[in-house]
Amino acid sequence: xxxxxxxxxxxxxxxxxxxxxxxxxxxxxxxxxxxxxxxxxxxxxxxxxxxxxxxxxxxxxxxxxxxxxxxxxxxxxxxxxxxxxxxxxxxxxxxxxxxxxxxxxxxxxxxxxxxxxxxxxxxxxxxxxxxxxxxxxxxxxxxxxxxxxxxxxxxxxxxxxxxxxxxxxxxxxxxxxxxxxxxxxxxxxxxxxxxxxxxxxxxxxxxxxxxxxxxxxxxxxxxxxxxxxxxxxxxxxxxxxxxxxxxxxxxxxxxxxxxxxxxxxxxxxxxxxxxxxxxxxxxxxxxxxxxxxxxxxxxxxxxxxxxxxxxxxxxxxxxxxxxxxxxxxxxxxxxxxxxxxxxxxxxxxxxxxxxxxxxxxxxxxxxxxxxxxxxxxxxxxxxxxxxxxxxxxxxxxxxxxxxxxxxxxxxxxxxxxxxxxxxxxxxxxxxxxxxxxxxxxxxxxxxxxxxxxxxxx
Length: 457
Hints:
Keywords: Acyltransferase, Transferase. By secondary structure, this protein is an alpha+beta fold. Helix content is 30%, strand content 23%.
């Protein structure tokens, strides 16, 4: 673990609206899809930069601050806070004249980008020091914090973001990064601009459903309960990142199809990259643990619901718009020869059911219930966050080239897998978090075995 030293803490306020422009709404009430995430609020990512294109660190900080201010012109609600509206029982984003803006931390460390970005076990404690610490478990809570850290060794910069999950999902977060990076390069922001209008997401019973979520899952507001699933000591986790390039993913898809055909259970359609990688990760996680063959094992992942709603919310909708998919199979299904095809078929079925009814009777509540109740046991649950489609490396060019590495810092529990599109643009990067190092070693061995290759990964 490398020591991280805080050098300065300041704030970047949102600029005043341009002349003639309508001021942003002072209060934005969270819908039920978003309110549930108040109990799992912390979304953290780390971007590591190095190379000859990096300006001096002080210039980097100035550029990041000025471009963040420009970005907040279109993302002004993020400079506010999340409040509990005790009179109505709702939770809402509010901006006031007393809000200082977005917390901006400047730090330094002896850790270097190359060692932090390696694919071996992550330096989790240092990672945590490279993202801003923001208290989101008591309302009013900040929505966004950023940290720029001067790296040692051969040099480099770490840029860390902490974002409240109740107001942004991965899709929104990477669109924010894209807008900020464009501003830092001196380019126009991506079109269309973000939309914070919660009327874009129409849920049955609307405001009353949001209030019922607050009453049921967080009755002690303004103090936010921490679910059982998030109470593990994540600093004890062993974390490792694997990158599957495009040719290997293509071979994985072909193998899944062949396995389905060979065992008389062909897939409905060829697997997507997401389905293929998630099926591989789920199979590896089950095979590296001692779960009785007849016990059910579970996979939880989230799907972007924006374009699946009626009417669609639109890609520009800035918020958390996710629906939960919970899949289960007997453990023996993921240990046999057909494991990858069995997993892929089950994942495809879950996605199809979600697409047919994206809201269902309780969109996403399954995960919140799992998080709070601790059931099923964590050793039988794999949770996938992120997406193989997130263009993290592509959108995060602040003028210094693509990051050498981006990582999801807030991996909360044993058996979590975090996905983004790989740096080469055609593959998938998957970070795996487990409590026991032996399980991570076994996961890696199973991964190579199921890929049908003994080459290094």
